Amino acid sequence: MELISHGRTLVAGDAMGELLSATVGLSFWGGVDPRTGVVIDQHHPLCGESLAGRVLAIPSGRGSCSGSGVLLELILNGHAPAAIVLCEREEILTLGALVAEEVFEQSIPVLRVEREVFARLDEYRYARVAGSSLRLFHEPPIADRLPETAQHGSNEDTTIRLDAVDQAFLSGRHGKAAQVAMRLLLRMAAIHEAEAFMDVSQVHIDGCIYTGPASLRFAQMLTGWSARVRVPTTLNAISVDKRRWRVQGVAEDLGAPASALADAYLAMGAQPSFTCAPYLLASAPRFGEQVGWAESNAVVYANSVIGARTMKYPDYLDICIALTGRAPLAGCHLDAGRRATLALEVEMPAGADDAFWPLLGYCCGSVCGTEIPLIRGLEMSAAGPDELKAFGAAFATVAAAPMFHIAGITPEANEQKPERQVRIGLGELRQAWEVLNTAASPEVGLVSLGNPHFSLDECARLAALVSERTKSADVAVVVTCGRAVHDAASQAGHVAAAEAFGVQFVTDTCWCMLGEPVIPPAVRTLMTNSGKYAHYAPGLVGRGVRFGSMAECIEAACSGKTQQEPPAWLS
Questions:
Q1: HEC-encoded secondary structure of 370-414
Q2: Please, are residues 53 and 17 in contact by the beta-carbon 8 Å criterion?
Q3: 2-145 CATH pick, 1.10.10.10, 3.50.30.10, 2.30.30.50, 3.90.1010.10
Q4: Which residues form the Phosphomevalonate dehydratase large subunit-like domain (predicted)?
Q5: Helix, strand or coil for residue 220?
Q6: Which residues of the chain form CATH 3.30.499.10?
Q7: What is the pLDDT of residue 94?
Q8: 323-338, pLDDT tens digit by residue?
């Protein structure tokens, strides 16, 4: 017996294999090993499963924009899923497959089906994707008895209106790099159902993160085609501290290609900003400004807190936008794409410390999935940029939505009128605390701060917290931040004060890319105030995690231990 259904072809092809399905979205970056295809996200139901050669069915991607880079690596190294089946709008994984097809002439099919069909997938063990057709089986299908229905080729939609500048890029008048970029943009515009393209004023590149040989190969191909950015372009945190990775003991086989990848983007004209918090730079966009940003926390901050307009652009589409200055006029670039469809009613517990914000972001992101939420109940909280940065990073880690609204705080919240409501109470916050605290032991060997990158105010607060304190010799304390913030904090004296306590500052890179020896090999448990890193660290670096406020992190740095019970305000 079999079930035959039809969906929307996102990337054409024909493949079959054992069906591997889950009802929870999966971030390939931080959630899947790019070398093996094994799921490493310890909070995901597929943890430990190999994706290689199987038909992966998930509602959508989620989390990091770098998932496209991980999928590209897997396709080129032979450990990718045979096909991907989705039921929600999804651009990150789709773009990875499109780049593999358009640039490297290798790919896998990606198909979007109706939710009713997706809900029945767990009844079957095997699947075949062939063009727009999905066939589900209880027993392994015999390939040569199945009709060949796949339609290979482009999913470009010729109804998209192209301006003269778009036509010039497509014709190759501005060189091969811009031509390839425009071809990819046109295919993604069709997936977005955009009717036209638009100008953007700036771009933030997340594709400068080294996910493996394919990421460097792609960037060097562009530089070989004389690629040059056409709008101001900043670079995300890269995979190493570019100026000091050798001194830090980073292995040559990571440091050299990661640094070369950064050099490739610099050669295209990008700025050496190297920060995952570009909203802290002087070049941050203003309300209503149309930009093309990647990096999940940066996207939700730009959209939600600043009120700038960007899609959650996948790695590699970011450089395509930079090379052309053009982006699909769709999604969050339009008023309709910014509307909240879900209201989350929350209550801020009495006495809550700064750990509340990433906990709440984690809860909200887990609930909303692809829906943009309006969060009510925080009108009197006086949340500032650092609180919203921590909230947004945790939110973006587990959500696919590109933004949020908070009543009384974010600039577009008063315009929202969602009909459906969900309550998030103390029980949900406590559950999130339990999820993020994975270490069995109270002993702490490393305090990890700066995910996303520290702001100048956070540097000042850290300097105050460590004043006249003595760090345990058994605990390392490491802060990551951008070069601009590090320079400003140095001038203000905050860096010297923190270093006197024993803090090590690392620039250019961020915790989602750091490993040994910056993380001492002997460390078994780390502590962080980042909901984002608390989620990713167990899978990325194989350590147990304790999560808490910044003040609790400094207490742990001094004592070498942390409390295993939730804070009093959660009890």
A1: CCCEEEECCCCCCCCHHHHHHHHHHHHHHCCCCCCEECCCCCCHH
A2: yes
A3: 3.50.30.10
A4: 161-555
A5: helix
A6: 164-336, 437-570
A7: 96
A8: 999 999 999 999 999 9
Q: What is the CA radius of gyration of the chain?
A: 23
Q: Which one of 5, 64, 68, 530 is the catalytic residue?
A: 64
381 CB contacts (<8 Å, ≥6 apart)?
348, 387, 409
The segment(s) of the chain belonging to CATH 3.50.30.10 are: 2-145
Q: Active site includes 296?
A: no
Measure the CA–CA gap between 216 and 211, rounded to whole angstroms: 8
Q: If you average pLDDT over residues 9-13, what whole number do you get? A: 95
CATH of 164-336, one of 3.30.420.40, 1.10.3720.10, 3.30.499.10, 3.40.50.2300: 3.30.499.10
Tell me 305's DSSP state: I
In angstroms, the CA 262 to CA 248 distance is 18
Q: Measured between alpha carbons, how far is 426 from 432 in angstroms, rounded to an integer? A: 10
Rounded to the nearest 5 degrees, what angle is found at the Cα of 46, between the Cα atoms of 43 and 47? 55
Q: 437-570 domain in CATH 3.30.499.10?
A: yes
Characterize the bridge pairing of strands 133-137 and 203-205. Answer: unpaired
